[in-house]
Write a structure and sequence with these properties.
The complex is a heterodimer of chains A (about 475) and B (about 220). By secondary structure, chain A is mainly α. Chain A has 19 helices and no strands. Chain A has helices at about 1-20, 25-50, 70-90, 100-125, 125-145, 150-185, 195-200, 205-225, 235-240, 245-270, 275-295, 300-320, 325-355, 365-370, 375-385, 390-405, 410-435, 450-470, 470-485. The longest helix of chain A is centred in the middle third of the chain and has 36 residues, at about 150-185. The mean pLDDT of chain A is about 90. Chain B is built from 8 helices and no strands. Chain B has helices spanning about 1-25, 30-55, 60-85, 100-115, 120-125, 130-150, 150-175, 180-205. In chain B, helix 1 runs antiparallel to helix 2 (about 30-55) and helix 1 (about 1-25) packs parallel to helix 6. Chain B is globular and about 60 Å long. The chains are: A mainly alpha (about 475), B mainly alpha (about 220). At the A-B interface, helix 5, helix 6, helix 8 and helix 9 of A face helix 5, helix 6, helix 7 and helix 8 of B.
């Protein structure tokens, strides 16, 4: 219980601190980073507690509200890591980053609240309150997209809040439908909205109602997860938001929405033939991968390129969730790898944007010479995202294709491989254009290292470590998550 | 038995009224009339909630109904009206879909809702079950309002009606969700509305219009 409050408390306090203290902005910023470090440490402790078999929620005054199993701990770990990285790269900590004091303050208030709502969403076991937390993530993150108000960012924020609020409202309709069925069958018992209770009661519920509920839930949370064809807000929002927020939205917010889908899938699978949810997920997933890849090919902006790559990767996760135990394992491993790779790439892209002052791939040339630290790291991030060894995403994508073959879906494996190949070729083409050539006129050449670069290099190192030898603790954690989803 | 019949009829009356107030948005052309349609809808939602509270003997739901009146019956319409006055008279903006087609589509959506709710009606014997397809229909009509209208403020009203639809679904389907959830949903609705309001002001200041057709700089 203590660990859980140490996980959730610091970001909430940091947000309140930024609201209350208007002076000493530098100090407040570092206090926020310290708080999120504490939160990250707590998330590691939570994982250890879960892996070693101790219950992480024992002795709580409200035992019904919180429930942390391996899957919650895994996603919380990713969230805390990315939030820490993002807050350390936030405005007002380093040199001149072009944000004034009011913007810096607003960033800290909403960024910490955003981190808190995501962490709450994965540790609450009441599905309706999980919905409340997910909806709150939309509100908090939407406030940060127009941090620098331009026509493009205003447009992106409007699309984001409208499409995602509507989507998430549909997810609530699905939640109410399932609850309706539960109450009609079992009566109103306490804790009836907890996913543990729902899942236990699922076999006695009405399959046709749960199918309808799942359709609503998949479309609803799928909108938030960026599954095609509900992904239209994603490239705009992720490319217009400030880099640390793009990192959090692309790296972990999509994963939180997938977490919600996975929880509901486990409930529905207990009542309906799993083929129903699996076919839906494969359909949406494959469409997302295809649309993501084709948009990558024609992309002219590097931040939008990263955003479409998220559509592709979330599609892969969706497919993985439908492919039996090995597929689910691959999906969550992929979520973890993608969280690290995408957030690092977005933060690096933010550094590139700050130097070149353009988001167009054409106008960014000679990156290796202009930014001797950021350039190679950005290249490594993109290589990781296309799934090259020795990075972790290679392993998870390989396992995913293997899972498709083992479940005798050869056509699926074939299409996914072809699409991955297309993504590989187009991303490398774009990367090539950015890395080499002469520096454009008026762009300063040369770059000093520093702790910010060191942190980003460390996360690239982490990706290599995941690719070369996955720590056994993490693989145990993911195996336990799989066991939590598939009985 | 007679009580149940009365209960059932009152719920059906309220739900139909809510659906009708959504159709007003498709049919009328001025934003003030949309705002009063929304206010009517919110009052009807509160009335349905209070009816369920009375017949089911649930005290908590009375509190929810009172909160609905305060928030959706007074506060949000007032904020909407301030927003409308700030923008002044907007030039007529044609929606993406004209009135006649809109009303036909709405009719089809209501039929679709009845088809969709059939398996659901079969499993329940609640006296409120007649409200279920109406709540579904309201949900689809609100979605249609959001996608077919071009003014940002109309889209916000569509979103607010979508929220009402879900609240109606919860109250007629399950006699209300647990109070903690209700409070969370209320907070989210309020926060979401306030943020949308800020964004509409952003759009107005940045683009000098609230016609979302202007928002198409971001492509591919």
């Amino acid at each position: 219980m203590l660990t859980l409050s140490l996980l959730l408390g610091p970001p909430l306090l940091a947000s309140c601190l930024s609201i209350l203290v208007r002076r000493h902005t530098h100090l407040v910023g570092w206090a926020g980073v310290a708080g999120l470090s504490l939160s990250f440490a707590a998330s590691i402790a939570l994982c250890v507690e879960v892996v070693t078999g101790g219950s992480a929620t024992a002795g709580h005054p409200l035992p019904d509200l919180w429930h942390v199993d391996a899957l919650s701990a895994l996603v919380a770990l990713c969230i805390a890591f990315v939030a820490l990285l993002a807050s350390a790269s936030g405005p007002g900590l380093g040199g001149d980053d072009g944000y004034d004091e009011a913007q810096t303050r607003r960033f800290r208030i909403f960024m910490n609240a955003f981190a808190f709502t995501m962490l709450a969403a994965v540790t609450i076991q009441n599905v309706a309150l999980m919905w409340v937390a997910v909806e709150a993530t939309t509100i908090m993150s939407a406030m940060l997209i127009p941090l620098r108000r331009t026509k493009a960012s205003v447009e992106a924020s409007w699309k984001y809040i409208l499409i995602c609020s509507v989507g998430i409202a549909l997810a609530f309709a699905g939640t109410v439908l399932a609850y309706f069925d539960f109450v009609a069958t079992a009566g109103d018992v306490p804790g009836s909205l907890n996913w543990t209770a729902l899942r236990a009661a699922a076999p006695s519920l009405h399959p046709e109602l749960l199918q309808l509920a799942f359709a609503f839930i998949l479309v609803g949370y799928g909108t938030k997860a960026g599954l095609a064809p509900m992904h239209t807000w994603l490239p705009d929002a992720h490319s217009e938001a400030p880099a640390p927020i793009s990192a959090m939205m692309s790296g972990v917010l999509l994963a939180v929405a997938m977490y919600a889908i996975a929880r509901w899938k486990a409930v529905v699978d207990a009542a309906v033939d799993p083929a129903f949810t699996c076919n839906l997920l494969i359909g949406f997933g494959l469409l997302s991968v295809a649309i993501g890849v084709f948009s990558l090919v024609i992309q002219r902006h590097y931040k939008r390129m990263l955003a479409y790559s998220s559509v592709e990767h979330i599609g892969l996760v969706g497919i993985g969730l439908a492919l039996g135990p090995l597929g689910v394992f691959a999906a969550w491993l992929h979520v973890m790898n993608h969280a690290v790779a995408k957030s690092t790439s977005f933060l690096l892209a933010g550094r590139v944007l700050h130097r070149y002052d353009t988001t167009e791939i054409e106008k960014v040339t000679g990156l290796l010479r202009v930014m001797p630290w950021t350039g190679p790291l950005f290249a490594a991030g993109i290589l990781a995202l296309v799934g090259l060894p020795p990075f972790g995403l290679f392993v998870s994508e390989f396992l995913l294709v293997r899972a498709a073959v083992l479940t005798r879906r050869f056509w699926l494996a074939g299409i996914v491989l072809l699409l991955l190949l297309a993504a590989f070729v187009s991303l490398l083409g774009h990367l090539n254009r950015m890395l080499y050539g002469d520096a454009p006129a008026g762009v300063r050449v040369g770059e000093r290292g520093g702790w910010a670069v060191a942190a980003l290099a460390a996360s690239i190192g982490l990706l290599v470590a995941f690719g070369v030898a996955l720590p056994s603790a993490i693989s145990t954690l993911i195996h336990q998550s799989v066991a939590a989803l598939i009985p | 038995m007679r009580m149940n019949a009365l209960f059932s009829q009152l719920v059906m009356l309220g739900s139909s009224g809510m659906l009708l107030s959504a159709l007003i948005v498709l049919w009328r052309k001025s934003v003030p009339s949309y705002i009063s349609a929304y206010r009517w809808q919110a009052w009807l939602l509160a009335a349905v909630t209070a009816t369920v509270a009375y017949f089911a003997g649930d005290r908590q739901l009375f509190a929810v109904a009172a909160a609905l009146v305060a928030l959706k019956g007074f506060a949000i319409p007032a904020l909407l009206r301030t927003m409308q006055q700030r923008f002044g008279a907007q030039p007529q903006i044609k929606p993406y879909v004209n009135t006649e087609t809109s009303l036909c589509v709405a009719g089809l959506l209501v039929m679709f809702a009845y088809v969709l709710a059939r398996p659901w009606m079969a499993v329940t014997h609640l006296p409120t079950r007649e409200g279920l397809p109406l709540a579904m229909a309201l949900l689809f009509v609100s979605l249609f309002i959001i996608v077919s209208r071009r003014k940002a403020i109309t889209q916000v009203i569509g979103f607010l009606m979508l929220e009402n639809a879900i609240a109606l679904l919860a109250v007629v389907g399950t006699y209300g969700v647990p109070l903690l959830v209700e409070v969370g949903v209320f907070l989210d609705a309020l926060m979401g509305f306030l943020v949308m309001q800020i964004f509409v002001y952003h759009i107005h200041e940045t683009f000098d219009t609230i016609d979302v057709e202007q928002l198409k700089h971001l492509r591919h």
